[in-house]
Amino acid sequence: MASLNIFIAKRLIDGAPQGRRFSGPAIRVATAAVALGMVVMIISVAVGLGFKMEIRDKIVGFGSHVQLTGYSLNSSFETPPLPYDSALVADVVRVPGVRALQPYVTKPGIIKTDDAFQGIALKGVDSSFHWDFINSCLVEGEVLELPDSAKSDGIVLSRSLASTLNLSLGDPVRMFFVNAYGVRARRFTIRGIFDSHFDEFDNSLAYVDMRHLVQLNDWQPGTISGYEVLLESFDLMDDVTDSLASIAMSHVSSDDDDVIRVADIRRLQPQIFGWLALLDQNILVIIVLIIAVAGLNMVSGLLILILEHTNAIGILKAVGASNSLLRNVFVLMALKIVGKGLLIGNAVGVGLCLVQKFTGVVSLDPHNYYLDSVPVLLSLPHLVLLNVGTALLAFVLLLGPSGLVARISPVKAIRFN
Q1: Three-class DSSP category at 227
Q2: Is residue 406 very low, low, confident or very high in pLDDT (cuts 50, 70, 90)?
């Protein structure tokens, strides 16, 4: 029976035209609608995923996936000190999903030049710091070399900050810090300049040797602001954060004032991640609208096919064809159009995404979008879901119009012109 359905459907859709026909243009319009809709959906999902991944990676690059800090009601960069705990570090790095752990120290200060000044936060790091993200954004110079034998006087800052203060690679930088004992000064030398296109961080953050900041804070050697934990995957954040919270609690004794707060990057940057969550809603609205338009074109095309093949329906019914058989025939005809549209749409959509991915031909204003080109992330599960979902939805939408076949009378249909 299935082979008979396919045979009749193929003959009707590929057979020679008889008399005046409208199904040819209708089929082409329906195919184009499905193909165009698929192209737009693939590009929308790929760009949305790419944008979220790029922005998320920038945020994680500046702040890690999870941070362990001293508990404080103060939200400034002046964090309470923590003693470096090797036992805690050993427990954290054993947690499944943890890629690395790196201590850090933060301190706000003021960069002063002859013509301008700028308040920034210094992030002090040591030799265990992972420079992968900064290296990917580096435009001049190099990252800091931090040997254990001597402190480094280098500083790595952003291109926008250097441009604002009229500084260049190799220039000396004078910085001033305020603590309980008054104002202190330090002199650094610019060793590297990066540009992440994320002005919120580029204009307010620079990297130095943490030993300078420990001294400026009048802390004992081995004292830090906290730990940054890097994960193997962003999707592991919830499970790892729960495990780290349990570990942090186990390392606080009843007579110990060093309470450790565990917070993931989504909690530390709620505005940015809330903004990224809105992208999912926008993409969903686009997909729903496109499927609605493509579905309407498919229903219209199927109705035209049924109308134009009314004579054939009457003849087939007269020779014994059942309503269910004829209904299946027209659903198969419509699904063939959907399949052709999906093939064309996937080829064009994926092709355009690959061109953008490897050439970056479509550029963006980094001051508005934090990126210099449109990001693209092609995900096989999402592609499969789009295709399967579109095909299933088309099948459901076509069941209603195909039911009109059962209401066609053989006698009237044969005489229909």
Answers
A1: strand
A2: low
